[in-house]
Amino acid sequence: MSITANSQLPNLVSENQKAITSKTDGSWANLGAELVYMQDGAGRYLSFYWQHSQKFCLDPQQVVADAKGEAIFAPVDKVAYLERLQRILTTLVPEKFQCWFCYREQLIELELTISAILPALGSAATTVLVMGRLLQATVSKAELNVSAPPPTGLELTLRSQHNHQLVTQITRNIRRTLELDVIWQQTVDCLGEALLLKRCIICPYQPPSDKLKVIAEYRQKEVKSVLGIEMYAASEPAFAQALATLEPILVQNPQHLLLEQEKMLIVATCYQDQPNGLIAATLCNDCYEVTTAELELAKEVADQLGTAIAHATLYKELEAARQQAEEASRLKSEFLANVSHEIRTPLNGMIGFLKLILDGMADDPEEQKQFLMEAHKSSLHLLDVISDILDFAKIEAGKMEMELRAVSLEELFGNVGNFMRLQAEQRKLSFRMQLPETSDEILVYGDYQRLKQVMLNLVGNAIKFTQEGGVTISADVVRKKVIFQDQEFPGMVRVRVADTGIGVSLDKQDKLFQLFSQVDGSRTRQYGGTGLGLVISQKLVEAMGGEVHFYSLGEGLGSTVTFTVPLYQQPVMVSSTESSSQD
Question: Strand, coil or helix: what is 84?
Answer without folding.
Answer: helix
